[in-house]
Amino acid sequence: MKNRTEKSILTIDQMMPDLIRLGFSLYGKPSKHEPDLEKTIIKVCSFFPDEIKIFKILISVVLELSSLVHVERLKSLVEDLDQYSDASIRTKLGLLILSSRLIESGDKRYLPLNRKIVQGLKNHSDKLKELLSDFEDPYLIQKQGLDQQLSLFGIKCARIEKSDSKKHLTRDLIVAQNHWLRFRVLIGSNYRADVLYLQSTGKYSTRYEIWKALGSSQETVYRICAELGSFKELKFTLV
Amino acid sequence: MVYSGDVLRVFSLGREDLIASKLYAYCDREESDLDDLLKIKPTIDELNSLYLWLLKRDLSEFWPMRVESKWIILLKRLGYEK
């Protein structure tokens, strides 16, 4: 049984505190609550290509965090997106470009996600062409190169690259201000780390609440909760 | 110049410099520079005085066409062209 991904009703301005907490160099104050990295990635992609500047910083931040992204969860959240809505197509297009840049950097974990998205966007070439019209410019193509993956959809547009690294904090600084990512550094980018982190916050008392928060496979989350139940004496101190 | 002392002189970008740098960025990349230009509200004379300067900013054969297409959009958005 899958949990439905919550519909994004946030504007990009409302997302700024979360983005700042995740290391984006933007004007404002960081959020007091811990941002959810995978859901934030999906939300930023849903504004593609309108918020191209933020999207480019996203590419750079995700490349910086690299192994700390839970790709399996990201794929699971993408599977819950609907097929035809404008926001869903924008999200998938953003994720297609993001995953391409990550695969090119050598992170092969993004291959299944990338293939899944290519499959999902197969019948939306016209919409993709419309969304990417600003990038179908010969000057931009000459300057930034042709995006090879998008040419599979019959679209000749310029590659969209990561922003300069000065537009975000370093990996160490981002991890230092995000406990969830610190759990992943220790345990790995997997559901076990995610369940342990959510339990450690004290905000989730049941396995159902944890499953709802993660938006992933119910079976997996329940199994991990059951396994971790034998270690109730385990306490976390977040410093 | 915003300050001139015995050992230090401080210069700052003026309005024309800001418009010029934003115009170049607006034509050179796909980011939010158009919004910035709309907020600066350059006059048609300020824009026209920078057009030739802008055309010389890149040697690409596609640059003049790029400038022209972005220029038309900018003038429309600023209400200078219907």
Give the tags.
heterodimer; A: 239 residues; mainly alpha; 2 domains; 14 helices; disordered N terminus; B: 82 residues; globular
Major sheet details of chain A = none
Helices and strands of chain B, in order, run as: EEHHHH
The overall number of domains of chain A is 2
Helix content of chain A: 55-70%
List the helices and strands and how they pair.
The complex is a heterodimer of chains A (239) and B (82).
Chain A: H1 12-21, H2 37-45, H3 52-65, H4 71-79, H5 86-104, H6 111-121, H7 125-131, H8 138-144, H9 148-151, H10 171-176, H11 179-187, H12 191-201, H13 207-214, H14 218-228
Helix pairs in contact in A: 2-4, 2-5, 3-5, 4-6, 5-6, 11-12, 12-14, 13-14
Chain B: E1 3-4, E2 9-10, H1 15-28, H2 33-40, H3 44-55, H4 63-78
Antiparallel strand pairs in B: 1-2
Written account of the structure:
- The complex is a heterodimer of chains A (239) and B (82).
- By secondary structure, chain A is mostly helical.
- Helix content of chain A is 56%, strand content 0%.
- Chain A is built from 14 helices and no strands.
- Chain A has helices at residues 12-21, 37-45, 52-65, 71-79, 86-104, 111-121, 125-131, 138-144, 148-151, 171-176, 179-187, 191-201, 207-214, 218-228.
- In chain A, helix 5 runs antiparallel to helix 6 and helix 13 (207-214) packs across helix 14 (218-228).
- Residues 1-8 of chain A have low confidence and may be disordered.
- Chain B has one domain (14-78).
- Chain B has helices spanning 15-28, 33-40, 44-55, 63-78; strands spanning 3-4, 9-10.
- In chain B, helix 1 runs antiparallel to helix 2 (33-40) and helix 1 crosses helix 3 (44-55).
- Chain B is globular and about 50 Å long.
